[in-house]
Amino acid sequence: MASLADLDEIPTKRARVEDNTEHEEPSQGSDQHIENLVVRFRCLSICKRMLENSYETLTENSSLYGLLNDLIVPAVQSGDHLLREEGLHCLGLCCMLDKHLAQHNIKLFITCIKHGHEDLVKKAIKVFGDILLMYGVETMTEYLSSSEDIHQVFEFGLDHDNTEIQSFTTQALCKLMLFNRFEDDELLGLMILLYFFPKTEVDEACNTIHQCLAYFFPVYCYSSPAHQKSLSNITLSSIKELCRVHADLAQDETMVDPKTITEMLADWNDPEKLQTARSKDPNYIEGDDEAIFQVSGGLAIETLELIYAEKESELRKILCHFLLRLRLEKLSNEQMKTIQAMIHEIDQVK
User: Model-level pTM?
Assistant: First the structure.
């Protein structure tokens, strides 16, 4: 892999790491070189601990510039994997202390995620998520070549074969979505698939993903009408995909059965639970929640349309089971009439 960075001093003395400059390392075989690597690694470890306990911005602590230029950036440029990982970690900590430094280096972290070795990807995805959480997605988007870059990075992480990378990506996305820093229905759908997808071997990272998402989905869906609407947008497509996966399940794979999946999705789409959670907010105004009950009505209508169009009997059964689990007590008269008419039409087809 080509080296990742070169130092470019800018007027404010902030270091910026570029993506395309070669950097040569001394011969790997010499004892002196190995000793030099050990010393540099120890220095980076000390620097990392210091940065982790620093709350001053870089503009308030000029001594950090020397560390950034003389120690951290050369480590990121290094051909040694361990030095590069530790250097990237330190650079990420510096970015947490300086927004402009983060903006100028956000592309570097994306490059590391897309093209780095697995251990570097793990470091980079954690830093990437922390930067977006700290400064917001919009603040970083203007420094990217495309607004789709962030989506592509998270999609890459969720689809990765390495479960640790999936875990770090999932944790980053959960934090961003819970704090309303980032919304993406497609990625939310991928998180649902990741939660329910069949597993052959379960490692610690898989357990972390499952625990994280088990906490995330109910908290996310009951914290905001917009969140629950986002979930409803991808509920039916997720059910269809998970039913297809379950039908093709291999003998050595385990997966939650589709009926249980639909029950959980219906529960997360429950407007009553959203209203109950919102009523605990001191700023809650009674009567403001009328619209949230219409979301489940719209979802019921979409489900009936899919049942009407679907020819595969097993999927229709699953969809009917899902429909029966939806809370439909407080729908508008118009929605109730539409639902009744569609049920009558489906009965006529039978």
Answer: 0.85
* Residues 6+ positions from 226 with CB-CB distance below 8 Å: 183
Query: In the chain, how many domains are there?
Result: 2
Bridge partners of 254, per DSSP, are 199
In a domain, 42, yes or no: no
Q: Which helix (H) or strand (E) element contains residue 59?
A: none
CB 94 within 8 A of CB 64: yes
Residues 232 and 343 in one domain: yes
Q: Based on the domain organization, do 153 and 244 belong to the same domain?
A: no
What tokens appear for 29 in the block? 């075989």
Judging by DSSP bridges, how do beta strands 7-9 and 15-17 pair with one another?
antiparallel
Nearest to 299 by CA among 252, 333, 331, 257: 331
Task: Evaluate whether residue 166 is within a structural domain.
Answer: no
Neighbour tally for 200: CB within 10 Å: 8
Domain that holds residue 255: 228-349
Instruction: State how far the Cα of 32 lies from the Cα of 25, in Å rounded to an integer.
Output: 13
For residue 321, what are the contacts with CB-CB under 8 A and spacing of at least 6? 259, 262, 263
Q: Is residue 301 part of a domain?
A: yes
d(CA 282, CA 230): 24
Residue 290 is classified by DSSP as T
- Return averaged pLDDT per consecutive 10 residues of the chain, 350 residues in all: 37 42 49 85 90 80 80 90 93 93 95 94 96 94 88 96 96 96 96 91 89 96 93 96 92 90 96 83 61 89 93 90 92 91 83
Cα torsion through 188, 191, 193, 194, rounded to 10: 170
Residue 242 burial (CB count, 10 A): 24
Q: Tens digits of per-residue pLDDT, 3-40?
A: 344 333 333 334 444 444 344 444 445 788 788 888 88
